Amino acid sequence: MFNNNYISNLLNLKDPNINFTEIKEENRKGIGTKVITGILVNKPDICPHCGGVHINIHGYKMTRIKLPKVSEYNAILDLKKQRYKCMGCGKTFTAKTSIVEENCCISNNTKHAAIIHATEKISEKDIAKRLNISHNTVNRIINSHNISYHVNFNYLPKALCFDEFKSTKDADGAMSFIYCDAVTHNIIDIIENRQLGFLKQYFYRFSLKVRKNVKYIVMDMYSPYISLVKECFPKAKIIMDKFHVINNFARALNKTRIRLMNSNKKLYNKLKNYYKLLLKDRRKVDSMHYAKRKCFNKWMSLRDIVDYLLAQDEELKNTYELYQSLLFAIKTKNEDLLNNILMSEHKNVSDYMKTAIRTAEKYSEYIINMVKYSYNNGVIEGINNKIKVIKRIAFGYRSFYHFRNRILIMFNLIHIEKVA
Ligand SMILES: [Zn+2]
What we know:
Among the domains are: 4-105, no CATH class; 242-372. With 420 residues, it is an alpha+beta fold. The chain has helices spanning 4-11, 108-117, 124-131, 135-142, 196-203, 208-212, 223-232, 242-263, 268-273, 275-279, 302-311, 314-331, 335-343, 351-362, 364-372, 378-393, 400-410, and strands at residues 18-28, 31-40, 55-70, 73-86, 92-94, 147-148, 159-166, 175-181, 187-191, 216-219, 237-240, 291-292, 299-300, 415-416. It contains 17 helices and 14 strands.
């Protein structure tokens, strides 16, 4: 009636030395709990202490091991471990099993389950709840020696993406560095500190030959990264990230709008309500559908609204038009137009836009590369968003080491040693 194989299979506790004897249902602290009992008998051929062969049985040691939940019941294994005594040296020892580490009361498959849960967007606290273990235990599992990630310092791909993300307080400047393969989109490593000295030291661990293999690096306008590439990656072309570049111009246009908005009470509501329309690619602003619009109280298309707003202020109009030309040049990969805009003087636009253009001009070579080559940091933005989510649901992380491990687990980069 009590089939040992079924039980071990169902619980995924595949140690042939365990004999299951009973399954009871108990109510512990109001939670239904399956209590499974078993006996572990595993007599070694020789004494682990002296190598002697005369070994007698010597009572039992009772252990209580936490298992992953079974059909939403908490599960516990009460395991009676056989003890042995060596007649040669007189020392005693306990039968060994692959389902749990020595002196540990959490089964290996519980640990494995914790790592699998950690690949999802849930907090360590919720993982703990799901597995009926403590929050601390989950943290310990994530930081344990059973999981490891090794960067291959003998290889770098042809194209890299550089970026940073808001990290833990113990990371210097609270910003950490992340880089990935621009083609396969795999994260290569996460580095605590994004400061130049730190990164140089890190990348010098790759030989010059390996670093010369890198031909393209995508990044945002952050001058230490440029110095880094010039020193460490002699063959790499710098490519500015499209998202960041467009964002800089959009911010300049937006500031222009806000200044006008705050100085003109009559236009305040209109400029406030329709700010997104100004930032949008003009070709995508609808001119076909008419509706009664908020703040206008008459039938208009969205394009009409944009045109109305622009007609109110010359500077806003010029700034907007320059912004749209930039968008157009970038999106249509028009190298000449982009170069032309960056190199000419723009007298009629707002100071904000002038500053943005001046900054872009400084990096124009790399911005032109952006339309020349098709690499961008879009992937890393996605990765960073996932990192943000995990940080938020965990209410922040205190230790960078732990945070890094969790990220590496989330992106399936951790090698998990096989458990029974
Ligand atoms: Zn012995």
